[in-house]
Specification:
The structure is a single chain. The chain has 2 domains: 115 residues, NAD(P)-binding Rossmann-like Domain (Rossmann fold, 3-Layer(aba) Sandwich), CATH 3.40.50.720; 87 residues, Alpha-Beta Plaits (2-Layer Sandwich). It is 37% helix and 25% strand. The chain contains 8 helices and 10 strands. The strands form 2 sheets. It has a 6-stranded parallel sheet with strand order 3-2-1-4-5-6, sandwiched between helices. Strand 4, helix 4 and strand 5 form a beta-alpha-beta unit.
């Protein structure tokens, strides 16, 4: 059983933790607010630690070295970045960081933390998808087929320089590529579109495999 640490037990952290719990992952939530932590204890089967994830002792009490993933989704960018840096120091291979301020994006990239989730950007992507004709009813239908929307960050060590058709061939659980974000441009995906380092590929994917 894979072990995941979720930093932040707010609305996002709670939802992520419940999803992972339902998928059979062992989950620990680190939450600073005692009242919120008590709610999490009552409403989930997750292990809950009351503390600040920027404190190494708190991460060690959560057995950080055993974690397959650390997901930092508090409402504070600094907390998420510091927790992610510490997780990288402890050898966690898969780190996902929620960032709102674009200034922190470059910091994370330079520190080797590539998996960044930006709520505002995600909403913008969904709006763009709707404008391009991907109707809400389609998303409802897709959700019933156990498919999630995911972002894949294109790096030298995964798909940079490869056509989109290659990604679809090697990732059998991809259902449909929605779009490619390249800088300020939104590219409509085609099989012969060559991916470059720094691209973000938005896909529909079966839930049985949560992350790249």
């Amino acid at each position: 059983m894979q072990y995941v640490i979720v930093v932040g037990g707010g609305a996002v952290g709670y939802t992520v933790a419940k999803m992972l719990e339902n998928e059979g992952y062992a989950v620990t939530i680190i939450e600073k607010d005692r009242n919120r932590a008590e709610f999490l204890l009552q409403d989930t089967h997750c292990h809950v630690i009351i503390g600040d994830a920027t404190n190494p002792w708190v991460l060690e009490s959560a057995e950080i070295k055993k974690a397959s993933y650390l997901i930092a989704v508090t409402g504070d960018d600094k907390t998420n970045v510091i927790a992610s840096i510490l997780a990288k120091h402890y050898g966690v291979e898969n780190i996902i960081t929620r960032i709102v301020d674009p200034a922190f994006h470059e910091i994370c990239k330079k520190l080797g933390i590539p998996n960044i989730v930006n709520p505002a950007e995600t909403i913008a992507i969904q709006i763009d998808a709707l404008i391009r004709g991907i109707k809400f009813v389609d998303f409802v239908k897709i959700s019933r087929e156990d498919v999630d929307v995911e972002e894949v960050f294109i790096r030298k060590d995964n798909f940079a320089g490869k056509p989109l058709s290659y990604v679809k061939e090697v990732s059998k659980d991809i259902v449909y590529p929605l779009m490619v974000l390249r800088g300020d441009k939104v590219l409509v995906p085609s099989d012969d579109l060559k991916l470059t380092e720094g691209d973000k590929l938005l896909i529909l994917r079966k839930r049985r495999k949560l992350f790249f």
